[in-house]
Automatic annotation (TrEMBL):
PROSITE patterns: PROKAR_LIPOPROTEIN
Keyword Signal: yes
Key words, A-Z: Signal
Name used for this protein in its record: ABC-type nitrate/sulfonate/bicarbonate transport system, periplasmic component
Alphabetical list of PANTHER family matching this protein: ALIPHATIC SULFONATES-BINDING PROTEIN-RELATED (PTHR30024), TAURINE-BINDING PERIPLASMIC PROTEIN (PTHR30024:SF47)
Lineage: Bacteria, Bacillati, Bacillota, Clostridia, Eubacteriales
Domain SsuA/THI5-like: 40-255
C-alpha cells in the first residue's frame, strides 16, 4: 500500500518549494551526512543514494555507518544531519537529542495472541494480565497500550520483554497471558500454535474505534538545527527519500537484491525478503504525525519517557511539519 503515489510526491515538491522559496540556503554548497545501520528499514534511504534520487533533487549526500547510539551522538555534535529512526528516537529526544521526525516510511499491523483456554475473550479481559512484547515502546506495544487505555486498564498490565520466539514459548507454557507482535499482511501466513487464538488484529476492518492498521514503524529523522539552518535542503532531502520509498515499494525484489549485492544488508535474499514481507512501504506525513502522537502518549504513559512536559509540548520537540499535507494525507 502507498500513501503517496509518485504524482502526489511530485506535486508536494512543487507546493512546498513555493512555500519555502524565500530561503537562501544553496543545496550545491552543502554536503548532507545521513547515517545508516544496515537494516532493511533503511532501504528507501540507501536506494535514494544508489539510484541518485538525492542528486536529482540537487542534494549532495554522504552516507556514514553508525549504530543507533552513534547516530544520536553524531546528530548531537553536528556530524550527522539525519537517519532512518524508529521507536527508540522518542527516548533519545526525551534525553535531550534534537531530532525531528518529518515523515513516515513503513508501517505494520499488530496482533494480540492469547490461549484458547485463557478465558480472555475481549481486550477488557487483559486487566491485570501479563503481555509480552519484543521491544519496550515499539509499535506493537504502543498500539496495545493505546487500546488498553481506551478500556481504562493500561496501567494494570505487566509488560514482559523477550524476542518473539521466546514469547511464543512462554505463551505455550502458560507463563504469560498474551503476546503483542507484528502480524504478517498475508492471512495465509499467519501461523498460530495449537491452542492459540487471535484476540485482536489491527488489520481487521471490523474493528471499532481508532484505526491502527499499518501503524508506522520507521520515520525520516533530521537534525533540528539542520532543518532550521537549511530548510530548503532538508525539504529536498526528505522528498528524495520519500520518492525512493515509493520506488522500493514498486520494485522490492530489485531494490533488495541491489542493496544486498552492494553490501548494505547482511543475509541472503530470501531472509531479507521474509523480513520485508511484514513491511508496508507507505511514505506519508499526516498519518505519520498521528502515529507519532500515539508513540509519545503511550511511551509517556508507560514511563518510558520521563520528561515533565505535556504530550503537546513533546510533539513540538519531536515532530516538524516540513512537508505540507496534500488532500488530507
Amino acid at each position: 500500500m502507498i500513501i503517496y503515489n509518485r504524482k502526489l510526491v511530485f506535486l508536494i515538491l512543487i507546493i512546498a518549494l513555493i512555500l519555502i522559496g524565500g530561503c537562501t540556503d544553496d543545496p550545491n554548497n552543502t554536503v548532507v551526512k545521513i547515517a545508516y545501520q544496515g537494516n532493511i528499514e533503511e532501504a528507501p534511504l540507501l536506494t535514494a543514494y544508489e539510484m541518485d534520487f538525492f542528486k536529482k533533487e540537487g542534494v549532495d549526500i554522504e552516507l556514514v555507518k553508525h549504530d543507533f547510539d552513534g547516530i544520536v551522538a553524531g546528530i548531537k555534535n553536528g556530524e550527522i544531519q539525519g537517519a532512518t529512526v524508529d521507536y527508540r528516537v522518542f527516548a533519545a529526544v526525551d534525553s535531550g537529542a534534537e531530532i525531528k521526525i518529518v515523515a513516515g516510511l513503513h508501517g505494520g499491523c499488530t496482533q494480540i495472541i492469547t490461549k484458547e483456554s485463557s478465558g480472555i475473550d475481549t481486550l477488557r479481559d487483559l486487566k491485570d494480565k501479563s503481555i509480552g512484547v519484543t521491544k519496550p515502546g515499539n509499535g506493537s506495544m504502543v498500539v496495545t497500550s493505546d487500546l488498553l487505555k481506551a478500556e481504562k486498564i493500561d496501567q494494570s498490565v505487566k509488560w514482559i520483554v523477550e524476542d518473539e520466539e521466546n514469547l511464543k514459548k512462554l505463551l505455550q507454557r502458560n507463563e504469560i497471558d498474551a503476546i503483542s507482535i507484528l502480524e504478517h499482511p498475508d492471512p495465509s501466513k499467519r501461523a498460530l500454535n495449537s491452542g492459540e487464538k487471535i484476540l485482536y488484529s489491527s488489520s481487521n476492518k471490523e474493528n471499532n474505534g481508532k484505526s491502527y492498521k499499518h501503524f508506522y514503524e520507521s520515520f525520516i529523522g533530521l537534525d533540528d538545527k539542520f532543518i532550521k539552518n537549511n530548510r530548503k535542503i532538508a525539504f529536498k532531502t526528505s522528498i528524495a527519500w520519500l520518492k525512493a520509498a515509493v520506488w522500493v515499494d514498486e520494485n522490492q525484489h530489485e531494490a533488495y537484491r541491489t542493496l544486498i549485492e552492494k553490501g548494505y544488508f547482511k543475509g541472503d535474499f530470501d531472509s531479507i525478503l521474509n523480513k520485508a514481507e511484514y513491511f508496508m512501504w507507505m511514505p506519508g506525513v499526516k498519518y505519520a504525525k498521528d502515529n507519532v502522537y500515539i508513540y509519545v502518549s503511550q511511551q509517556r504513559s508507560q514511563n518510558i519517557l520521563r520528561s515533565d512536559i505535556s504530550d503537546k509540548e513533546f510533539m513540538k520537540k519531536i515532530y516538524e511539519p516540513l512537508i505540507p499535507e496534500l488532500n488530507g494525507r
